[in-house]
Amino acid sequence: MDAADNTSGGNKNAKSAKFGLWRVFVPVVIGLCVVAWLFKREFNPDIWRMIHFDTRVVLCILLAWIFMAGRDFGLTWRFRALTDKRLTWWQALRVNFMCEFTSAITPSAVGGSSLGMIFMHHEGIDLGRATTLMLTTLFLDELFFVVACPIIVAIIPYDMLFGFDGSSFVVGLKLVFWIVYAAIFLWTLILFMGILVKPNGMKRFLVWIFKFRPLRRWQSAIAALGDNMVATSKDLRTRSAGWWFDAFAATALTWSSRYLVVNALFLGFVPGADQLVVFGRQFVVWVVLMVSPTPGGSGVSEWLFTEYYGDLLHNTSIALVIALFWRIITYYVYLVVGVFLAPSMFRAPKKSASNDDNNEK
After folding, report:
1. What is the DSSP string of 243-306?
2. Is 66 helix (H, G, I), strand (E, B) or coil?
3. What's 113's DSSP letter?
4. Disulfide engineering: 188 pairs with which of 70, 142, 152, 329, CB 3.0-4.6 Å?
5. Angle at which helices 316-327 and 300-308 pack, to 10 degrees?
6. Three-state DSSP state, 107
7. 289-314 burial string, b = 16+ CB within 10 Å, else e?
8. Please, which residues have CB within 8 angstroms of residue 324's CB and are 6 or more apart in sequence?
9. CA 296 to CA 279: how far, in whole Å?
10. Each residue of 52-106: pLDDT tens digit?
11. How far is residue 218 from each of residues 4, 132, 211, 212, 226, measured CA to CA in Å?
12. What is the pTM of this model?
């Protein structure tokens, strides 16, 4: 019996590993194919020969890596804060890397980071508690977007933020951005009401909405979401202002550092570009990428970057070079790290802290 279990377990792990490798290869192939197509269409070899990797360029590329490390520090800090430091720094960093890995191999519209509750459970956090914490991180991320958008639109001229020309690309970009932002705003409002103001009332409202025939297939999932919001509310209502400050500060550091990666690259390759506009456009890019149908935004990211930043560079070839470095630093590195960390996710989870407490009692 044990041998059979071991065999079936081994087969399951083997299948999982193959599935994982397939998931990794798909976004890589999509991204590289789009980059190759863009290079063939737009790249001028003379431009590459004009790029000198002098001290300034090398230091700015290094600065981009430092900003990305700041983003990882922010998320690691947030996982530590949310779990009341039950996760060590290394455990929190591992959860962060796995969340990024699953985000990289799943469509952006799906969101691989939602699996963070499973990763936290493997690190010893009770599954129910981990589910509550992931709903909290989701709320904090959406809240950052809701708060940051009016600030960015207020300090950056509208035409400079989206582009001066009235091309179909700019018109489409504006339309997609505001539709996605409206959806984020609505979703944040639902989360705010559900986990901080009226959790039971929001649960009943959502279940009632999804009783109608076109939405009935998702009713059980919505009921589970309502239960999670009620559980999350019980936890968050007891939190101090200092706890909220740490959690939101870590969230703001995470997203700001992610945007500043491109600022550092522009500082190296195009030092004359308006850094405030570069930062604001990164905000727009990440909002739009939330509805990307490809794994990790592969292909869409590279194309969107070169089209969107083209007017700041007056040279598409430079945009391709910057886009390539941008994706290596913010995307491909997580695929590589995730491949090495993923096998540990097939092992039995560590005993949760809550279980330890119960045993002691």
Report:
1. HHHHHHHHHHHHHHHHHHHHHHHHHHH-TTS-HHHHHHHHHHHHHHGGG--SBTTTTHHHHHHH
2. helix
3. G
4. 142
5. 140
6. strand
7. bbebebbbbbbbbbebbbbbbbebbe
8. 35, 302
9. 20
10. 778 888 999 999 999 999 999 999 999 888 888 888 899 899 888 888 887 777 7
11. 37, 20, 9, 10, 12
12. 0.79
Nearest to 68 by CA among 251, 256, 258, 250: 258
Q: How far apart are CA 64 and CA 69, in angstroms?
A: 9
- For residue 189 the two structure tokens come to 């409002």
pLDDT in tens, 157-194: 988 898 777 778 888 889 999 999 999 999 899 888 88
- 137 and 232 Cβ atoms separated by less than 8 Å: no
Residue with tokens 């504006």: 174
Which residue type sits at 197? V
Give the single-character DSSP code of 109.
T
Rounded Cα gap, residues 51 and 33, in angstroms: 24
